[in-house]
Each structure stands twice: as C-alpha cells, then as structure tokens.
Design goal:
The chain has one helix and nine strands. The chain has 110 residues and is mainly beta.
Length: 110
C-alpha cells in the first residue's frame, strides 16, 4: 500500500505552510464495501536526510506520516488533525534512526 505522497529520494523535503487533505473519510466510509485498503498520507522508505516541515495535514486515510528504514529525518512545525477516520496515527517511526520531531500538534483517532 503506497502513501499518497511518497518520498523516494535521498534529500527529499515536503514543506511550505500549506495544507494537505487526505480525504480519509471517503476511504473509510465510501470504499469499505470494496475492501480497498486506505493509503498512508506521507511515507518514506529506505531514504536518507528527509525533511517534513511547516505543514497542516488533515483527514489522513490511514497513518499520517510513516518513516520506514529512514536515516536522518527532521519533522517540525506540523499540525495533524484526523478526527473523522479510525487508525489515523500521527507519526509512525519504524526501523529508522536519527529522527528529530519537534513543534508538532496531533489530534488523531488512534
């Protein structure tokens, strides 16, 4: 299951002060009968030195930010609100190292 926004290159960044809407409510209530697995909102796998900063993330279909086997990540000034869908973890760090998370506000349903 691929994320909606997938960081696949070293030195990748997502930033800017805008809002990313995941439309998660549609996955949970519109596609449940189709057995479609909802995607993560932002994901990074097997990369180094990524940054995710100054964003508002809303209504993720599943986990909001998932880092898997990432070396050196910086997540800062993020506002996550997932109030409509279930299992919408805020930030999942999986088999990663040297991760800094600061100035994050979470309001999720998990």
């Amino acid at each position: 299951r691929l994320p909606l926004l997938n960081l696949v290159y070293n030195e990748s960044a997502v930033y800017g002060g805008g809002t990313i809407y995941g439309n998660g409510n549609q996955y949970w209530y519109g596609h449940r009968e189709l057995k479609v697995k909802p995607p993560r909102l932002i994901g990074a796998t097997n990369v180094e030195n990524i940054k995710i900063t100054h964003l508002r993330l809303r209504d993720a279909p599943y986990w909001t930010i998932h880092l898997f086997r990432v070396n050196k990540a910086y997540i800062s000034h993020i506002d996550i609100q997932n109030l409509l869908s279930a299992n919408t973890d805020g930030i999942d760090i999986d088999s990663s190292k040297r991760v800094v998370i600061e100035f994050v506000r979470l309001s999720v349903r998990d």
